[in-house]
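Appendix B. One record, verbatim.
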Amino acid sequence: MNDDVWSVALPEGAEPPFQVWVNGEPREEGADYAVEGRWLRFGSPLRPKVRRKGLGGRMMLLAGIGVYGDQKADVVDLRYHVGGQVMHATDLPILPPADAGA
């Protein structure tokens, strides 16, 4: 993986085996991502959701300006185990390299 690692936090208590999908496409551990502690680390860029801030941003959304460009985020889904039970998490938050703590 390169230095620009994109991260997704595993849910509390998540245990392997993990199955990961990005935008509905399966990803392979080792080739597409690595598990590091409580994190999934992706070497290729992911597009996190853009959070609009402030009154101006909300007004633009209400007027329909800029809505479509902000909807093109990646969706990370996960199947994992907790205490032997299969669990699912969808649309997990994506942290860019600068925001992903070790």
